[in-house]
Amino acid sequence: MKKYIILITSWLCVLLTMLMIFCFSAEDAEQSTQTSGGVIEDVLDTVLPEDKVTPELVNKFQFPFRKIAHFGIFMLLGFCLSNAFNVTIKNKWYISYPCALVSGVLYAISDEWHQNFSLGRGPSFKDVLIDSAGVAVGIGCFVLFLLVLNHLKNKKPII
């Protein structure tokens, strides 16, 4: 029973991450700019004096912040996919990690295609590359997580 709970929880994390990505992609261009602008403004408010945060400064950070956000959310997806496939395929890393990578890249492609249907937004090959790199780094983070966890438990590496 415990294995099924872990399996279901692992795939639920994947689905929730995909849903979060889907919701962000469904925003039109104006909503998306407001969402990222609000986060940027909050971050700048914590590190700069209030009178130094201007709309121009917030606008200056839009592009890099959005690319970092793409990378980060897909890194989370890569981590979750690695875990879910690892649990499902019973620790056969030579199958689970390529499955996680292919699934993440396909979701990145579908995410960019989905943006076609959002007003003022469109697909970007550059974003697919950024998203795919995020998935790959997420898989790498999962592998490191397992190595550290295994070392703490058994004092020997898993690979």
Structural account:
- The protein has 159 residues and is mostly helical.
- It has helices at residues 2-26, 29-47, 55-88, 93-114, 125-154.
- α2 (29-47) crosses α3 and α4 (93-114) runs antiparallel to α5 (125-154).
- The two termini are 28 Å apart.
- 21% of the residues are buried.
Poorly predicted ranges (pLDDT <50, ≥5 residues)? none
The global form is: globular
Report helical residue fraction. over 70%
Mean pLDDT across every amino acid position: 90
Give the N-terminus to C-terminus distance in angstroms: 28 Å
Number of DSSP E strands: 0
Spatial extent as radius of gyration: 18 Å
Major beta-sheet overview: none
Quickly give the structural class: mainly alpha
Strand content: under 5%
Q: With helices defined by DSSP (H or I, 4 residues minimum), what is the helix count?
A: 5
Secondary-structure element sequence?
A: HHHHH
